[in-house]
């Protein structure tokens, strides 16, 4: 599955089909996007029992295992391949959290031990990227050297949501609260990463879900961020009262080592994660990393 395409123009109006062309860098096959598709397919299969969904989830899983498995002492799965088929050798905590959840779903649905083994392989990479202070860095470079200077919010929240290392959740989530929270344009939220600036709402919504579902005192900490997201839907600049802007300020920078920015526009990922975060207050299965129900 490629990262992104767009419909260009209708080739033959009589047949009604269109060409799809790659967006810039859209021809990449990265395991994060593929695992998200796989998670959706496993949930569809669990709900409908239509075999095509499980079949295609297995195809994705087999591709990841064949193309991206790394067998050094950090383990895990590498970043995929670029548009030209060259392997992306770095390893991402976020991608391996995705892989862990996806492979756990396949294991639960099929009772095939290979998928739980693959989940354990992804888990080992994530644990290798947890520093002594209790938080997770972004991953590795092209070898097993950690990118220790890059600390994303998602690496803390997603790991907790996937229950990948439950004994470490409180410490990494407390780090997230202490080091990654921010104020922007009068709203509370979380930065994309430690070196970044200003609230990024995709990260904020994942963080608030993780805090809420963790329970205890951390659940109480989630309330202010839920209120902030709700207020942004109603009043943030460029909000339409329905979706969520990527950031309530003019821009949110991801920071050194990542290098892209989000702007004050309505944002699909921020809106989707916010919707899931609110649903999770009534139903923990709204957590996309929750183990599939058989």
In short:
The protein has 294 residues and is of the alpha+beta class. It is 47% helix and 13% strand.
Notes on the structure:
By secondary structure, the protein is an alpha+beta fold. The chain is 47% helix and 13% strand. It has 9 helices and 11 strands. It has a 3-stranded antiparallel β-sheet. Strands 1-2 form a two-stranded antiparallel ribbon. A two-stranded antiparallel sheet has the order 6-7. A hairpin with a 2-residue loop joins β8 (181-184) and β9. The longest helix is centred in the C-terminal third of the chain and has 20 residues, at 216-235. It is globular and about 50 Å long. The two termini are 26 Å apart.
Principal-axes geometry comes out as globular
Straight-line N-to-C gap = 26 Å
Total number of β-strand segments? Answer: 11
**How are the strands ordered across the major sheet?**
3-4-5
Strand content bin: 5-15%
Q: Determine the fraction of residues in helical runs and give it as a percent range.
A: 40-55%
* Low-pLDDT segments: none
Number of helices: 9
**What does the main sheet amount to?**
3 strands, antiparallel
Q: Provide the residue-averaged pLDDT.
A: 94
Radius of gyration: 19 Å
Instruction: Give the SSE order as H and E letters.
Output: EEEHHEEEHHEHHEEHHEEH
- Structural category is alpha+beta
């Amino acid at each position: 599955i490629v990262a992104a395409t767009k419909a260009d123009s209708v080739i033959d109006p009589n047949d009604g089909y269109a060409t799809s062309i790659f967006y810039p860098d859209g021809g990449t096959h990265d395991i994060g996007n593929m695992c998200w598709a796989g998670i959706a397919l496993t949930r569809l299969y669990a709900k409908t029992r239509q075999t095509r969904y499980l079949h295609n989830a297995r195809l994705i899983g087999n591709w990841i295992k064949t193309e991206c498995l790394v067998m050094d002492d950090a383990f895990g799965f590498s970043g995929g391949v670029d548009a030209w088929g060259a392997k992306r050798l770095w390893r991402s905590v976020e991608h391996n959290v995705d892989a862990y959840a996806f492979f756990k779903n396949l294991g639960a649905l099929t009772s095939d031990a290979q998928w739980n083994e693959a989940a354990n392989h992804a888990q080992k990479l994530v644990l290798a990227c947890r520093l002594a202070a209790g938080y997770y860095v972004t991953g590795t470079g092209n070898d097993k050297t950690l990118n220790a200077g890059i600390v994303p919010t998602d690496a803390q929240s997603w790991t907790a949501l996937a229950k990948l290392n439950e004994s470490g959740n409180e410490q990494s989530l407390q780090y997230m609260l202490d080091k990654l929270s921010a104020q922007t344009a009068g709203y509370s939220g979380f930065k994309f990463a430690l070196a970044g600036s200003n609230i990024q709402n995709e990260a904020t919504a994942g963080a608030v879900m993780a805090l809420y579902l963790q329970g205890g005192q951390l659940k109480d900490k989630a309330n202010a961020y839920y209120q902030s997201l709700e207020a942004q839907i109603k009043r943030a600049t460029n909000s339409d009262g329905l979706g969520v802007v990527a950031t309530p300020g003019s821009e949110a920078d991801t920071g050194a080592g990542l290098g892209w920015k989000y702007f004050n526009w309505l944002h699909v990922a921020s809106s989707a994660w916010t919707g899931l975060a609110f649903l999770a207050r009534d139903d923990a299965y709204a957590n996309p990393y929750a183990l599939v129900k058989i």
